[in-house]
Amino acid sequence: MSSENNKPIFIATRGSALALAQANAVLSQCRSAFPKLDIELKIIKTTGDKLQKASLAKEGESLPKGLFTKELEVALLNGDADIAVHSLKDLPTELPTGLILGAVSKRADVRDVLVYRDAEYLRSQPGKSNRRGFTPKLAIKDFPPGATVATSSTRRKAQLLAQRGDLNVVEIRGNVATRLEKLANQPELDATVLAAAGLERLNFKITAEGKLAGEGIPEGLLATILDFDVMLPCVGQAALGMEIRENDARIQEICDRLNHPETHACVLAERSFLSGMGGGCQSPVAAYAEIAGDQLQMRAASFRETSARRAVGGKSINEAVALGQELAAKLK
User: Fold this and answer.
1) What is the pLDDT of residue 130?
2) In this structure, are residues 199 and 176 in contact, taking their beta carbons and an 8 Å threshold?
3) What is the mean pLDDT of the chain?
4) Which pLDDT score is estimated for 60?
5) Which residues form a coiled coil (predicted)?
């Protein structure tokens, strides 16, 4: 490390429970790898945090680019922070001049999770008979006609409707805990879809009986993990991105120790695909890359047309960008 070793290093993060859990995980890694450095968190409120009532899914409605990242990037450029920790799915593919993606964490469970109320629990609760519940291990195909599923993701909405065109898909905003509370207490909602990685980072778990358990979770919720053939994830899902200033050798050295090369290659292909499709994090496209031997395999889908369009491909690991571009070309 340089002679600036005694200069504090600030990790910028949003203030939500999930963002703090993610940033603290990175902070723990940093302190473990560099125990002599002074490394602290800096909480910054983003535009996305301030626009809790704005729609993320309405067609033709323009929202600021980098909804959950812009203010963190300003802090980096101003020298008020040194590393910004993002859910990589929220980080635009085009970064501001002077900033780069310094590292990518090892990916957590990349799948989505269907969450819904437990019929057996509701039967035991006086006064909750107006809320519809279901049996464990519920699949999307098992919903009654016209069931209401809440999600603010255009990608999730498109895939839900591709399987069940009769579903009523509505908007929902708020952090993970808020969404779970809304599902538990609003009778008009039947289910919601969340990222498995986010639940895991908040120390929530799905029990063998299919119950969603953890501190702060409303009672009586069940969960089903959705396979990729049912719900393909968004670009960068379940990975954390560490954004830093370009040509900052001291911080890059830290990131080199934190980076997970296999995940980095996978998300590089996915982000290349998203860039090639000309979309942002709210675009109705999905992609998932994984390493098989010395090959990078990726499946991708676009839901911009009336019917879904899908593509698969593979290249060597060092051709991640080309793989993403190739699949984008197939689907555009």
Assistant:
1) 82
2) yes
3) 91
4) 43
5) none
C-alpha span between 332 and 93 (Å, rounded)? 17
1-106+238-259 CATH, one of 3.40.50.2300, 3.40.640.10, 3.60.15.10, 3.40.190.10:
3.40.190.10
- Does domain 260-332 fall into CATH 3.30.160.40? yes
Rg value, the chain, Cα: 20
* CA pair distance 220, 122, nearest whole angstrom: 7
| Predicted TM-score (pTM) of this structure | 0.89
Domain locations in the chain as residue ranges: 1-106+238-259, 112-226, 260-332
Q: Do you know the residue count of the chain?
A: 332
Decide whether 1-106+238-259 matches 112-226 in CATH topology: yes
What residue has token string 């986010």?
A: 198
Q: Quick one: 112-226 is in which CATH superfamily?
A: Periplasmic binding protein-like II (3.40.190.10)
pLDDT category at 281 given cuts 50, 70, 90 is low
Single out the residue of 106, 44, 104, 39 nearest to residue 77, CA to CA: 44
Give the pLDDT confidence of 45-63 residue by residue, as tens digits: 876 665 555 544 444 444 4
Predicted confidence at residue 217, as pLDDT, reads 93
227 among known catalytic residues: no
Give the count of alpha carbons within 13 A of 223, CB side only. 23
Using the predicted structure, report yes or no on whether residue 117 has a pLDDT greater than 50: yes
pLDDT in tens, 159-214: 999 999 999 999 998 999 999 999 999 999 999 999 999 999 999 999 999 999 99
d(CA 330, CA 316): 19
- The rounded distance, in Å, linking the Cα atoms of 227 and 112 is 8
Please tell me which residue in 82, 90, 112, 248 is annotated as part of the active site: 90
Token representation of residue 70: 């812009």
Exposed, middle or buried: residue 81 (CB in 10 Å: 0-12, 13-18, 19+)?
buried
Interacting residues of 204 by C-beta distance below 8 A, sequence separation 6+: 176, 212, 213, 214, 217
